[in-house]
Amino acid sequence: MREPASGTVIPSDLYGFAERLTTAERRVITDLRQVLTEQVHPHLNSAWDEARFPEEIIAPLRGLELMDPPALREAGEPIRDIFLGFRNFELTRCDINVATYYNAQASLFRTVCTMGGSAQQARELDAKIVSHELTGVFGLTEPDHGSDVAGGLATSAAQEPETGDWIIDGAKRWIGGATAADVVATFARDAADGQVKCFLVPTSAPGVSMEVIPRKASLRIMQNADISYRQVLVPDSARLQQINSFTDVAGCLRRMRSDVAWMATGAMAGAYEAALAYVTHREQFGRPIAGFQLIQEKLAMMLGNLTAALGMVVQLTEQQAAGIYRDENSALAKMYTSLRLRETVALAREVCGGNGITLDTDVARFHADAEAIYSYEGTHEINALIVGRAVTGVGAFT
Predict the structure, then answer these.
(1) Strands 208-212 and 224-234, bridge-based pairing
(2) What are phi and psi of 28, to 5 degrees?
(3) Residue 145: DSSP 8-state
(4) How is 107-164 classified by DSSP, letter by letter?
(5) Predicted confidence (pLDDT) per residue in 72-100, tens digit
(6) Rounded-to-integer distance, Cα 142 and Cα 148, Å
(7) Beta carbons within 8 Å of 362's beta carbon, 6+ residues apart
(8) Which band of pLDDT confidence, cut at 50, 70 and 90, is reported for residue 317?
């Protein structure tokens, strides 16, 4: 897009949704963009090609203190949901892997600890999470249970009557960032009452083993792990006291779906802007291909998808900030934005022609990694059934 108007926070934000941010919030977002551009982006293509996580990006991201930004503290402003949404947008606008890595700690792990812990647990854990003194990941999905994990979760937890300690057995799969984390927030079914509980299991605990999942065609930078638990002993103090059923887990997932909808929207912006940059410089038949009608139509479709998605996630976030949380609302946003992301990255790759399958344009990363966003935090079909149940009053889950 041409040079944005003065004060515009996001170049591809055609309708100015980011104008809802305060001056201090805008400063955090622009500082984040500068770090992503100068200290993160240069490492991404080689790391993606080699399927490795670039350790060089950790310190710059942590140095921004995005979970408790100094600029907001100095301005005396609270950390608002709309700021967190645009933070996710900006991270994913750079790269889906980067946002997934950051949100493993700042969203998934932090959410389950603050919502699932007792008041004392939440207070003590959150300070450590924000400072990165404690790093953790979210361990729900299993090798044989993804969409049916609510009823099919097989990892078990048995409490010893004499000591009150718990013994955990089972396996988890697709747990992003687990190999570098201190603990895994592990969801397990209580052998006594059949209900789902959550335990902060140290990755170094005896009986815990894990390995990085190889040969991925998506999220190649993010190190997803298979985890095995064999007679893993944890104290009762490691159990998050407010997670006592899958209904409690669903409350966490409701918030996480909103975060993923923001990520899908940010990824659309990244793919669109990468494609736009390419077509304005690529020449065929003696002129830039940006001047061809069919290219412009595809750019308009990409921008339309992005704008519609941005409007949806902004409205959803403002609704939730007002205290309105509905499963169908976050499910609809995740379902719709990830579907439009799929279309947008395909159009971006298309306008870049053969060069769109190379990493040099950035489009290929977005094109491949969009498949992960489309799948996690509820597949398209599962989220559609959540919405369908709400609007018809009839559950169609089998």
Answers:
(1) antiparallel
(2) -65, -45
(3) B
(4) IIIHHHHHHHS-HHHHHHHHHHHHHTSS-EEEE--BTTBSTTHHHH---EEEE-TTT-
(5) 999 999 999 999 999 999 999 999 999 99
(6) 10
(7) 45, 270, 271, 274
(8) very high
Structure tokens at 20: 């809802």
Please classify residue 129 by burial: count the beta carbons closer than 10 Å to its beta carbon, then call 0-12 exposed, 13-18 middle and 19+ buried: buried
Q: Per-residue DSSP letters for 55-112?
A: GGGHHHHHHT-TTS-HHHHHHT----HHHHHHHHHHHHHH-HHHHHHHHIIIIIIHHH
Distance of CA 265 to the CA centre of its chain: 11
pTM of this structure: 0.94
Residue 152 is inside which H or E element, if any? helix 149-152
Q: In the block, which residue shows the tokens 């793919």?
A: 271
For 327-363, letters b (16+ CB in 10 Å) and e give bbbbbbbbbbbbbbbbebbbbbbebbeeebeeeebbb
Residue located via tokens 């930004």: 69
Q: Which two tokens stand for residue 117?
A: 């812990």
CB burial readout 167-194, b (16+ within 10 A) else e: bbbbbbbbbbbbbbbbbbbbbbbbeeee
